[in-house]
Amino acid sequence: MDVQDRIDALISLVENARAMPMSASCVLNRGEVLGMLEEIRKALPEELQQAQVLLREREAVLEEGRREAEMIVISAREQRGSLVNDTEVAREAATRAETVKADALQEAYAIRREVDDYVDAKLANFEVVLNKTLAAVQRGRDKLRGRDEMDALGEHVQAADSGQAADEAQPFLG
Questions:
Q1: What end-to-end distance do the CA atoms of the chain give, in Å?
Q2: 26 pairs with which residues across the strands?
Q3: Which domain holds residue 109?
Q4: 50 domain-assigned
Q5: What pTM was estimated for this model as a whole?
């Protein structure tokens, strides 16, 4: 199960939790929720590590493209040097070398765009996962704040009820 699935399971657990009467609070199994959060914590570094591997692979592909382009240029220069005596052949070789170099650079650029698109897609997916995690955490915190507000309201109502009972007993005491 990936991080996305784990977050969905946690959200489902909270949404389907038994509600407390007259409250925005709900009853959750602490161990189950903590276990799910721990699974998410363990999975996130793996997702980050995968993204870092993709970035390193991208750099390796770019470096390989650069080396290949340099080798092509060196090869073209060697060919040009051996054909210097014949100017027509030398011109054709120079033109061919430039074409090969341009093609190699264009291919390296295309590979780079593909790698960038792939890495961007992975990072976008990771961003969605993180946003869902943050939203789930925020909903949990909001529910906790709602519970605190309900507790404070209950204390206020109890205090008001006990004060009213004392006011009603005053005429009989005096």
A1: 73
A2: 19
A3: 3-132
A4: yes
A5: 0.33
